[in-house]
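FW: tagging you since you asked about this chain on Friday. Here's the raw sequence from the shared folder, copied in full. Didn't touch anything.
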Amino acid sequence: MIGPKAYIHSSRMKNNISQIKKSIFDKNLMVVVKADGYGHGALNVVNILASDKDLIFCTFSIEEALEIRRNGIKNRIFIFSKLQESWLKLALENNIWINASHIEDLKILTKYFKKYKACPKIHLKFDTGMTRLGFDIKDHNKVYDYITQNSFLPIEGIYSHFSTADEGDPSFVETQLEIFNTILKNGKERGISFHFVHCSNSGAILNNYGDTFNTVRVGMLAYGVAPSDEVPMTINVEPVMSFCGPIVNLREVPKNTPISYGGIYITKKKTNIGVIQMGFADGVPRSWYENGYVSYKGVNYNIAGRICMDQFMVDFGGVKPKVGDEVLVFGKRKTDFIPIEIIAKKTNTTTYVLLTAIHGRTEYIVK
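HL: got it, structure written out here
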């Protein structure tokens, strides 16, 4: 296929997980593969990693989890989305863990268990400051009362989510930790224990927040990308994806030639303009044209003019690249390297937004 290609480097993915495991020692590791594996292709990721049977894969939706199961993956799977009674049967049949984040969730699960004598394994989610899903902290004794009174419920874990773990100021993380530890302590005093206790995400792993818990969740770090520019990359990881596009046309143009929509890019001298067959519909950020560049055979070349929906142009100067060759948009491939973190910073967005924008016509090639 002529068009954008996402090269997925399996050896880097495996090595990243190995490096992360070394840093967390003997803790359980959850690998987040929601949003199509952060744009890497969820099935690509789980197939690369599934030989490690101890890994727990995390999706957002039941649909994402079922797709993994349909492809023969046996690892444990945990889903983050709000509980829905309509898919409990599917979760149970496919051994998919779920979360309860509201007292009504527990009532639904109790009703289901009493009817079918079983229900999916459950993690309790408490809101400690994200103000998203999760039991209110003031209700934690009510939650403990409920699960004590309905001890047949298969409660496997308890967790929360740091909202600022990938930022430089640790103060709010410390507040969230204090709240979560209080909830855990109160549960322990009541004889309630959990097999899986987790708060730490990629930023927390790098900053050593929540290192006393026995389980961690890793997302962006597993893909070899920094969760933000405010945390030190203390774990040696490499970008798993190389996002590339083919040169489909090359022409020599004179000085003062306008390029692309609006003609805002005007050549300063006679130069070679290459057309790359990928655009913002494929995940190339449109605003990147202002400061942007691609890499070709180890050299960076400026993007020429506004990025189009399906294509964009590159000013190759006096170089005449071969039509059919590929340029690197971001990632690391052969002699080319453009960190996606640089593009995120220059375009005032995040690496999460950039990676999950890759879709549609992109061909995935697992290497």
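FW: The chain has eleven helices and 19 strands.
HL: agreed, and The first strand starts at residue 5 and ends at 8.
FW: great, closing this out.
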